[in-house]
Amino acid sequence: MSENQNPQGHDLTRHDGDGTVARTDRFADPGVPEHHPRLADTDPRAAKRNERIIAILFAISCLGTIGSLVAYFAVRPDGTTPGVRLSTVLLGVALAISLFGIGFAAVHWAKTLMSSKEYVEERHSSSSSEEVREVVQQQFKDGLEDSGIARRPVLKGAVFSALALFPLAIAVPLVSSVGGDWNVGKFRNTIWRKGMRLAYDPSGRPIKASDVTVGSVAHVIPDVPAEERETHEWITEKAKAVVLLVRLDPRDLKRDHREGASYDGIVAYSKICTHVGCPVALYEQQTHHLLCPCHQSTFDVADGAKVVFGPAKRPLPQLPITVDDEGYLMAEDDFNEPVGPSYWERLK
């Protein structure tokens, strides 16, 4: 074997028109590998067994869809955190069973009962002749025959039942929610009120200004009674009212910083990014920048949380704060503007 031949003896040289010879790495087309029949191709009992397995998987999918509908109507959130969690878990598990049943059945069907032969179709122009179209139609008919669905009525009924039932798991909750609460005015305000203390999240312990050191960061929620923090309404309101508290050297605050919005270098901003609502929680102490991990919007804490980089277009809303007679941090009012990303009917 020469150095210009591959191990199979194929010539690896190219002779150009100017008489030069160049080496190339082209190999001959190995073609389609030899077909090896599966057990289900040669043993009718194995084929029947796989058919039953696939039918069972589709039946499991049907049960999952029915279970999701039962869970949706029978286990409604009762306004408490455990109730919401139970409803969510049951819906999620039922939908997972429904989807996985269809998926596993389809995969098992393709691997055990559908045709496993490999076919080669040479590329040609996109415009096909009438003869080619007839061949393609025949290939579709042959493929349908290879799938075995025509001669397997049990599988036909199972697959159509599963596929027909599954959309109900999505359509029923969607249709039942029509006519719900479309009041966008609730997005304009949060539960922060004048005199409400700032508390650590998630413990709910009120925060003293003297305990916050320069450079430190705290995740903050409104100070409400412990029993109130277990309600579904609290979870919804907390999602809008979460705050990131940072203490800077007062000299680092820009001169155009809003008067009365901070206390002795302590500033509080909404944690909800004004781009698409991700939690902004990555603080760089040296630059005083807050980073949103979703799309890298960056806000300058020392300059009113103005946008310095990224897709966000508006600063983070600021919560005006002061201290009460006992030295605890408290809100002077609600945020200076609606929190989060834009929505219809927003004034600014």
TrEMBL record:
CDD domains: Rieske
The Rieske domain, residue ranges: 240-330
Localization per record: Cell membrane
Topological category with respect to the lipid bilayer: Multi-pass membrane protein
Principal localisation: membrane
Annotated Basic and acidic residues bias: 11-44
SUPFAM superfamilies: ISP domain
Record GO cellular component, one term: plasma membrane
Recorded GO MF terms: 2 iron, 2 sulfur cluster binding; metal ion binding; monooxygenase activity; oxidoreductase activity, acting on paired donors, with incorporation or reduction of molecular oxygen
Segments for region (Disordered): 1-44
Chain's role: Iron-sulfur subunit of the cytochrome bc1 complex, an essential component of the respiratory electron transport chain required for ATP synthesis. The bc1 complex catalyzes the oxidation of menaquinol and the reduction of cytochrome c in the respiratory chain. The bc1 complex operates through a Q-cycle mechanism that couples electron transfer to generation of the proton gradient that drives ATP synthesis.
Family: Belongs to the Rieske iron-sulfur protein family.
Protein name: Cytochrome bc1 complex Rieske iron-sulfur subunit
Organism in which the protein naturally occurs: Krasilnikoviella flava
